[in-house]
Structures are given as structure tokens and as C-alpha cells.
Design a protein that fits this description.
With 192 residues, the protein is an all-alpha fold. Helices cover 76% and strands 0% of the residues. The chain contains eleven helices and no strands. Helix 4 packs parallel to helix 7. It starts with a helix and ends with a helix. It comes from Blautia segnis.
């Protein structure tokens, strides 16, 4: 992404931290970026296309920068931290006309983060594919449900502390569930 486009996206996120989505104008962006309107329109058709691009780039960066997860707690806390970093902006997107688009990419992020954890933890195990997919979906839905609850409650509680508390409460359950997904040697021999 070129420097000007990056500056426009960064400015959009800054403004989204300060005001609701529907209050952000092209003029706000060009004034803060010190570019002209033609420059904005060279890169983006309008504010909605800027919002979509910004959400996609954010989701891709969160996925790309995730590293490897050594525990389910680590991946859940990682998502909580990423959401907390943009708390007001995410609340404004959640309450905007771009809510569905935002949720689509939030869901994509959650799925990739949970998949990474499960793949890392089970790379040396023989797993039943349908059970693994069920496990990934379960944890992704749980994680997204927590984030949606946080957003629906105006991000009024400490998401990271709440996730840590839940992880302590359910400690070990992820490992037990993965063990239930393993395919026994007898099942492998029966398919050969």
C-alpha cells in the first residue's frame, strides 16, 4: 500500500476513534491528511469503500501478525487485545451501516486465529477431520460471542480481564476436547 493510501486509512481509523462513522466526511479526511479531494478519490470511491478497505487491511494485519499460539488462552487474549486497541472505532463500526461488513471480517479473524492454534497444537496428532472442524467452529463462535457481547454492552467492561477469567474457569477444556478429536490407531487401520 502506498504512503498516501496508508495515511488516508490511518486517518480514517483516527477519526473513527473520535466520532461515529456517519459523521466522518471526505473533507475531514483530506484536511487531516493534508491531501486534496482528488487524491482521496484516486484511492477510494467514497467513505464506505474506505471503510471496507480499512476493515479488510486491519483484519489481514491481525491475522498476519498473530504468530503461533501455545495455548487457547493466548489466542483468545490476542483477539481481545486487538479489539481493545481500537475500542471506540470498533464500537462506531458496530453501530454503523457497515456493521455486517465489519462482523464478516471480525469473524474471519476469529476463525483464522483459532485455526492457527488448533493446527499448531495438533500437527503431530491424527485427528478426525469433521471433529476438528467442529472444534474450530465451537471456539470461534465462543470467541465471537464474547466480542459481540462486549460490543453490544458498549465495550463497558474490560474485555481482556473477562477473557482471562473465562480461560481460567475453563482451563484444560480445550486440550481435553482436542484429545477427543484424535483418531485411534484402530480407526486408522480400519480405513486402510
Amino acid at each position: 500500500m502506498n504512503r498516501t493510501k496508508h495515511a488516508i486509512v490511518a486517518t480514517f481509523w483516527q477519526l473513527l476513534e473520535e466520532k461515529t462513522y456517519n459523521k466522518i466526511t471526505v473533507q475531514d479526511i483530506v484536511d487531516r491528511c493534508h491531501v486534496n479531494r482528488n487524491t482521496f478519490y484516486y484511492h477510494f470511491q467514497d467513505i464506505p469503500s474506505l471503510a471496507e478497505w480499512s476493515v479488510e487491511i486491519w483484519a489481514d494485519e491481525v491475522i498476519k501478525n498473530r504468530g503461533s499460539f501455545d495455548s487457547l488462552t493466548h489466542c483468545i487474549i490476542y483477539m481481545a487485545e486487538e479489539c481493545t486497541k481500537r475500542k471506540k472505532a470498533l464500537l462506531h463500526l458496530f453501530r454503523s451501516a457497515k456493521k455486517e461488513y465489519f462482523l464478516k471480517y471480525l469473524n474471519k479473524m476469529g476463525y483464522h486465529v483459532i485455526c492457527t492454534y488448533v493446527e499448531n497444537r495438533t500437527e503431530n496428532l491424527s485427528l478426525a477431520e469433521n471433529k476438528t472442524e467442529s472444534l474450530v467452529r465451537y471456539y470461534k463462535c465462543t470467541l465471537m460471542g464474547i466480542i459481540l457481547d462486549w460490543l453490544e454492552n458498549d465495550a463497558s467492561y474490560d474485555l481482556i480481564a473477562f477473557c482471562q477469567e473465562l480461560c481460567e474457569l475453563f482451563s484444560g477444556s480445550g486440550e481435553r476436547a482436542m484429545l477427543k478429536c484424535t483418531v485411534s490407531k484402530d480407526e486408522i487401520d480400519a480405513t486402510c
